Amino acid sequence: MKLAIISHTPHFKNNGIILGWGPTVREIRHLKNIFNKIYHIAPLYEGSCSDSYIEYDDNIDFIPIIPSGGPTFKNKIKIILTFPSNLSIIHKICKKTDWIQFRSPTNLGLYVLPYLKIFNKKKYWVKYAGNWSQINPPISYFFQRFWLKYIVKQTQVTVNGKWNNQRKHINSFENPCFSKKELIEAQKVKRAKVFSERIEICFVGAFEKNKGIYLLIDALKLTKQYSMIRKIYFVGDGNEKEKVKLSIKKLNLFEINIVGPVSRKKLNEIYSRCHIIILPSKSEGFPKVIAEAISYGCVPIVTNVGSISHYINENNGVLLQTRSSEKLKNAIEHLLNDRMKLRMLSENGSKIANLFTFEHYNEKIKKYIINKK
Questions:
Q1: CA distances for 36 relative to 4, 59, 61, 318, 371, angstroms
Q2: Which of 71, 126, 229, 296 could bridge across to 271 with cysteines, CB 3.0–4.6 Å?
Q3: Where in the chain is the domain with CATH 3.40.50.2000?
């Protein structure tokens, strides 16, 4: 079978080699266990990229389209200007395949979803990777979620988490991030981790307000237990990177490592060293970094948004009901002062890690998408 994937995943060309955002490319690589040929239709940007980007392997062809969308009016106008060219490319590639997967929400959804419903003749499904329960989403996200809920009732849609009054065509899928083999290696690291000494903490995500990085910085300024912390890693990138760096420099009581975006190998090394991962986001679907970190024994301190509470609770982490630096500081200090609980939460976290393997994800695709009666 042949599959066309349509997404907004950024790609760059480096010395003639196409590189795509690592987490997405890794997921697509494992879909080769279902499909013998995959076309990934996504935007190609100019400029350089970080170590978080990786190349494809055999039987996966990257098909470039023109980037569009963004915060400014000019960016939004570009969606209209580029859609005829982009849709022409999408149509041409989709005619070659047996199945289509559209990855939503993205500005592409404004015209790709109607195209798939009205003009496309091939079988397709939609992966909605955003926050399915978001109360006040951007208008384009609202349109796509409404379309997927009420317009395409015969099309299978996968979402993060399981929700009240979920319609029959809406399927609850975990967001995959590692193979069974990688999970086994991570569990070995977890079992050897020492929780009685000074601990290490990581933040992995975009350097922006909505991810809660400033809340974390403020919470660390408030804590009186700084002597119990050996090191803090800030892993990521974003438009507010320089502003974040200035704020982080004020944390002079801690050893700080501002890592930036890194390769998967380097990120695993950070997970291996850390005991706690903190992600006090304002909105999420289910971030892959949470599953990645708990596979290495990191205890998550996270906010109750999206489908996070469907997997993280008082038995395997700390779920903040309120986003504030004071609440976050209290959660950090609680774990610093109760190392037996910290270890217990780490052990319990590994019990759900197998839900996030690529193999588990592929089995659900076969059962609920490809072979669904």
A1: 11, 7, 12, 42, 17
A2: 296
A3: 2-176+357-370, 180-353
CA–CA distance, 118 with 32 (Å, rounded to integer): 28
Task: Please determine, for residue 296, whether its predicted confidence score (pLDDT) is greater than 80.
Answer: yes
Identify the H or E element spanning 257.
Answer: strand 256-258
Q: Are 60 and 34 in contact (CB under 8 A)?
A: no
Residue with tokens 């809340």: 215
**47-to-13, 126, 241, 347 alpha-carbon distances in Å:** 8, 30, 18, 43
Average pLDDT over residues 152-175: 95
How many C-beta atoms lie closer than 10 Å to residue 358's C-beta?
Answer: 21
The answer to whether residue 250 scores a pLDDT higher than 90 is no
Task: Classify strands 11-14 and 17-21 as parallel, antiparallel or unpaired.
Answer: antiparallel
Indicate the fold that domain 2-176+357-370 takes in CATH: Rossmann fold (3.40.50)
**pLDDT tens digits for 257-278?**
998 899 999 999 999 999 999 9
Q: How many CB atoms lie within 10 A of CB 273?
A: 18
CA distance 186 to 272: 8
DSSP code, position 330:
H
Domain 180-353: CATH architecture, name and number where available = 3-Layer(aba) Sandwich (3.40)
25 bridge partner residues: none
- Prediction pTM value: 0.93
- Which tokens belong to 290? 């949470």
Q: Are 328 and 278 in contact (CB under 8 A)?
A: yes
> Is-contact 17 29, C-beta < 8 A?
no
